[in-house]
Amino acid sequence: MKIIDGKALAAKLQEELRVRVEGMAVKPALMVILVGDNSASQVYVRNKARAAERIGIKSETLFLPESTSEAELLNLIDKYNADEQWHGILVQLPLPAQIDEDKVLLAIDPNKDVDGFHPMNMGRLWTGQPVMVPSTPAGVMEMFKAYDISLEGKQAVVLGRSNIVGKPMAQLMMDQNATVTLCHSRTQGLKAICQKADIIVSAIGQAEFVKADFVKEGAVVIDVGMNRNAEGKLCGDVAFDEVAEKASLITPVPGGVGPMTITMLMKQTVTACERLTAGFDNERVDK
Ligand SMILES: Nc1nc(=O)c2c([nH]1)NC[C@@H]1CN(c3ccc(C(=O)N[C@@H](CCC(=O)O)C(=O)O)cc3)C=[N+]21
Question: Catalytic residue positions?
Fold first, then answer.
């Protein structure tokens, strides 16, 4: 068994980004909007701000109160859409109940949508014309590349069908010629499906869900889970110690997919800046 070191790979890619940004006349700028005081979100946005600083990306985090109305948030998004000094706009999820997430994601200019969550960017991904790709699945694809894991003709299983992880993950692996089974909470015979997989990507949000008897000898296991165990410690979806004995490659939590997510977000901010300053526009057919 070998551990996929997401932290080390993220550091290497961030250094490459730093060099790329050094050569840019217009420096990329990312606006992060956080509504409310979700404690996990606070940690994530702090990590994003740190990564941005290391790379030379300008970033600002706007902390809005839990009581912020949908109209107030939509107004702010309009303002940053129109403001040329910002190349990326990210609204941290989840949002408080009074705000309709779908409306917010639709309001962000697709050219500035560094999360890749706008329906236009989702649609582009599903039709084979990716521009902005959700960062978590993009980060997992970078791990496959860095560790020479070929997806060609492989049986891949994705656990979880969310718009931000499961669905785009399945699409990206399909693009690399994997045969993908997308499983979810209503899947019958889930364990037997996992046992046939060459690659398992778990994004269901339940600690210790993927146990050793789910995993074929030599399989690659990617853990996207971000859960807290009884002691409040961060842990993934995979029972790491027992699964590690069977897997050929496995990601830890923390230090696996999380740092890659942040790195891909930075990469897309750089791309957004390059595209916007070159005058590209998603609404047109150019890529
Ligand atoms: N609009 C939006 N975009 C997102 O990309 C987004 C979001 N909303 N909402 C929440 C999820 C979650 N997410 C993570 C980012 C970094 C780590 C991360 O840095 N993890 C570290 C440790 C973090 C810790 O110590 O808690 C690691 O796994 O090693 C984790 C999770 C981004 N998300």
Answer: 48, 92, 115
Q: What's the predicted TM-score (pTM) here? A: 0.96
ipTM computed for the complex: 0.96
Together in a domain, 153 and 253 = yes
Question: Residue positions in the annotated binding site?
Answer: 160-162
**How remote is the CA of residue 44 from the centroid of ligand 1, in Å?**
5
- The sheet carrying 58-64 orders its strands as 58-64, 29-35, 88-91
Secondary structure (DSSP) of 146-205: HTT---TT-EEEEE---TTTHHHHHHHHHHTT-EEEEE-TT-TTHHHHHHT-SEEEE-S-
Are residue 62 and residue 174 in the same domain, yes or no?
A: no
Residue of 156, 240, 251, 139 lying closest to 194 (CA atoms): 156
Between the alpha carbon of residue 190 and those of residues 11, 36, 183, 184, 256, the distances in Å are 35, 36, 7, 8, 24
Indicate the pLDDT class of residue 282, thresholds 50, 70 and 90: low
CATH label of the domain that carries residue 93 = 3.40.50.10860
Rounded to the nearest angstrom, the distance between the alpha carbon of 258 and the centre of ligand 1 is 6
| Single-letter amino acid, residue 260 | M
